[in-house]
Design a protein that fits this description.
The chain is mainly β. The protein has no helices and 33 strands. A 5-stranded antiparallel sheet has the order 1-4-3-2-33, with no helix packed on it. Strands 5-6-7-8 form a 4-stranded antiparallel sheet, with no helix packed on it. The protein is globular, with a radius of gyration of 21 Å. The protein starts with 40 loop residues before the first strand and ends with a strand.
Length: 445
């Protein structure tokens, strides 16, 4: 509920601006038509390497492909000779299925992939032109279990917005047409409510958060606000990163406004009906002397969905937020400083933009935070610094191994490195497996 930087389109991720050209796991603009026959393939060209990682562990890396508008999801074990390749798309909360929508002519093909085997579980065609390759959440959102897929039309009519709610189990589609400029923000677990960003088209780039009843086929009267700050009904700011609870019933989005030096978490319950609660919760985060460092903010959610961690390695700040109870119980529990590696944003290289810049250890006792000067390990109980690693290097994406012995990271040279947590040193580089990594999607045991 903040003012956006001047000239920045409302409700657009900073990945849309000239500072943030990094393609993210949910996204890639102007992707060419995917060939289903070429996806889910296994490559034999990855050289074997020694690894002390758990035998069944697999990394999922979002990898860019230079010279094309395509990004792929590459899955592999560092000690294996095989790599599995999947297309860009939306992934269910349990990481078991990937949903990819590609348009051709006046229809769209939706394919559902098994992320463990790469097999296409099923495909179906729906009328209209939609895609899962757009940046951010504006054009496509998925329910937590993958049952419901919401899409925004790629060929809008002036003054109108076309949306579709797809039942991925039956292949049926419910078409929605709204007067005005709307973007997708979320979908309820039952697929009965859409959560939308309504652009107001004013010079201040204001927008409302709205709810649409799929069964009633109508916008719910009124707007969604923080009940504790109703005077700030017009939302502003740019979403940077998001965490969603496992069942898809609540989303937390971290917004930043470098111009006004403001950062906050917007908690949104994704209720299944108009009885709600159709309210939000805004939690202001600590900032420094300048807004230039706000893009270093990261957001992590504990495995039980009860605690959020907002950390910024450039500011040297970490905040824990209790996410238990109803939306009005979401509040900051503690904030701590852990030192900083401050670097002006203008000095950042293209590949250094954070995407998945923090990760929790499997036992939830340690939060790892990436930044321009190394990786910081923070005790989640006390928010005190445990140790730091490789402070002479920058990292943009992190994931922890299941056994707690290894950390995976993407560095500015656009390679994935394996870091031993016992020594704090890099043990191997995986540039041959994922030669152009954008971010680490997840680690599967």
């Amino acid at each position: 509920m903040r003012q956006p930087p001047p000239g920045l389109p409302p409700s657009r991720h900073f990945m849309h601006s000239h500072l943030f050209r990094l393609r993210v796991p949910l996204a890639l603009a102007s992707m060419a038509l995917l060939s289903l026959a070429s996806c889910g393939s296994v490559s034999q060209s990855v050289p074997a390497r020694q690894s002390s990682l758990p035998p069944g562990e697999r990394l999922y890396i979002w990898n860019d492909e230079p010279g094309s508008a395509s990004q792929r999801l590459i899955a592999f074990h560092p000690g294996s000779t095989q790599a599995l390749t999947l297309p860009v798309g939306l992934v269910s909360q349990d990481h078991q299925r990937l949903y990819a929508a590609t348009a051709s002519g006046d229809h769209t093909t939706i394919a559902i992939y098994d992320t463990q085997t790469g097999a296409v579980q099923r495909t179906f065609t729906v009328p209209g032109t939609y895609s899962t390759s757009g940046m951010g959440f504006a054009d496509a959102v998925l329910s937590g279990d993958g049952h419901w897929l919401a899409l925004r039309g790629m060929r809008p009519v002036a003054g109108k917005t076309s949306l579709a709610v797809v039942d991925t189990q039956t292949g049926t589609l419910a078409a929605v047409t709204l007067d005005g400029d709307f973007e997708l923000d979320g979908i309820s677990p039952a697929g009965t409510m859409l959560y939308l960003i309504q652009q107001l088209g004013d010079s201040g780039h204001h927008y409302y958060v709205r709810a649409y009843g799929v069964v009633a086929r109508a916008l719910v009267e009124g707007i969604i606000v923080d009940k504790t700050a109703i005077d700030e009904a017009q939302m502003n700011g740019a979403p940077l990163t998001r965490q969603t609870v496992r069942d898809g019933s609540r989303a937390y989005t971290l917004y930043i406004d470098p111009e006004r030096n403001i950062a906050f978490i917007h908690g949104l319950p994704l209720a299944n009906d108009a009885n709600g609660p159709l309210f939000a919760r805004c939690i202001d985060l600590p900032v420094g002397a300048t807004g230039d460092l706000l893009p270093y903010y990261t957001l992590a959610l504990s495995a039980d969905g009860k605690t959020l961690y907002a950390a910024n390695a450039a500011l040297g700040l970490v905040t824990s937020v209790s996410a238990q109870g109803d939306i009005f119980s979401v509040n900051i529990t503690s904030t701590s400083g852990f030192g900083s590696g401050i670097i002006p944003l203008a000095a950042m290289k293209w590949g250094q933009v954070l995407s998945g810049g923090s990760a929790l250890s499997a036992d939830q006792k340690t939060l790892y935070v990436a930044g321009a000067h190394g990786i910081w390990a923070i005790d989640t109980a006390s928010l005190r610094l445990r140790q730091s690693f490789l402070t002479d290097r920058a990292f943009s994406s992190l994931a922890a191994s299941a056994d707690g012995q290894t950390l995976y990271a993407v560095d500015p040279s656009r390679s994935v490195v394996v870091i031993s947590l016992s020594t704090g040193k890099i043990t191997s580089t995986l540039s041959d497996v994922a030669p152009h990594p954008m971010s680490i999607g997840w680690v599967a045991g």
